[in-house]
Amino acid sequence: MARFLCIENAGEVDVRGFYVMGMSSKTGEDDMIGQFGTGTKYGITALLRDGHEVQVTSGKSKISFLTSEDNFRGKSFKTVSVKKGRSIFQTGLTVEMGQIHWDSVKAIRELISNAVDEGEFNITETDDVKGSPGVTRVFISESKYVKAFMKDFDRHFAINREPLFKSEDVSIFDKIGRGLLVFRRGVQVYEDEGTTAVFDYDFDDLDVGEDRKSSRWDVCWSLKSQILEFPVELKRKVFEAVSGIDSESFIESKLEMNYGSCGDDWKEIVGDRVVVDEQVASVYREHLLGYNIVVVPYNWMKFLEKNEGIKTIKSVLSNSTLKGWEQVKSDLYTEAVIDDALQFLRDVGYKISREDIIVADNSSESAPLGQYVDGKYYINQSSIRKGSDDVLDTLTHEMFHALSSAGDETRAFEDFIIKESIYHMKRLRLLLKKVQEGDSGEEGIEQSIVSACVES
Hints:
Elements: E1 4-10, H1 38-49, E2 54-58, E3 61-72, E4 75-84, E5 87-94, H2 104-118, E6 122-126, E7 135-141, H3 144-151, H4 153-156, E8 165-166, E9 170-173, E10 180-184, E11 187-192, E12 200-203, H5 216-227, H6 232-242, H7 264-270, E13 274-276, H8 278-283, E14 293-295, H9 298-304, E15 311-312, H10 313-316, H11 319-322, E16 325-327, H12 332-347, E17 357-362, E18 370-373, E19 376-380, H13 381-385, H14 388-404, H15 411-436, H16 442-455
Parallel strand pairs: 10-12, 13-14, 13-15, 17-19
Antiparallel strand pairs: 1-6, 1-7, 2-3, 2-7, 3-4, 4-5, 8-9, 9-12, 10-11, 16-17, 18-19
Helix pairs in contact: 1-2, 2-3, 6-7, 12-14, 15-16
């Protein structure tokens, strides 16, 4: 085994990058993450803490790191100094810094990331520490940490992997093992072993912090935007995952897709199947017998509903069925109650056909007493059991919905009810006047009332 892992990149590093805090060549360059900045200092102290020898060449110049014992308030520390040629620079760093969050694996990743950011990078194994004009080389003594890191290199970096698909914004790779792996320009910035994904993803523009890590929210935001641009075969694989038995384990199943348009390639993927979520499949299980259904997460169902060519519960079942109404057999009492309510409405000028009334049960938890659906008046059996007055209330309410085309608790519905009430009050007022004047001609009274109401 060679003595050193050598990480090389174009350009010569300023020695101050190893001991001045807050100094980074990132400034003003949005496409960079932060080369030879704070992460480099944490990385080198972590490697020194684990017993690695670390040396750097900047062009022909050699840079090495020294440690010395120091004491502060009765506690011993190993402070780090940087040596370049004959000059020694005190860093203010200690080997103990970053122990909680930094280890050798993260340190190696950071130093390779620096090289990737700088460009024209190369990784080799060597026995000699040699510099070369125009390049920076970081040498790390070989160890079990280095060996383990290089064995798992493709989980840390996507730079050697061949993408299944590549656009200006994203590269998509076959997965390596389980878990969610996300990269930014070849550098891993997010990993979640408890969540899997259909692919490994590399985004060109993904928000990351100084620790080169992205958040789950940023990953999901970028991913849901890019899935809409995938070629159809990759979309098909995503759909197979979100509609599979283990769909909940995939990050793709949790994406809020609603904001995007659902193109016809999704229609091709879904085919003749009816898209439902688990709740819909459970509630309408019996009604869906005979249909070829596909169960997806709720957010995906709402997304796919946006394409009118894709079959959904609304396109295969009637509105009344969706609202929980199931027709039941009528009896003599029911017919008598309904006839009484219809006669009252006819007497005051409203006409509803018996054929337009359906006696039904409703399976919903907050079942209404009645509902005007699909051009029919659905009356709940529970309303009928209360008698003709309740049925009259229910029919009147739903009739006003039908006549006004307005929903409950709307200004339009309220205005309609007020106008209807005033109309009937005017009729009553005129009728009372006619009676008081001694006009007993019923037909003449009625005609006078209608004319007056219309004129007003």
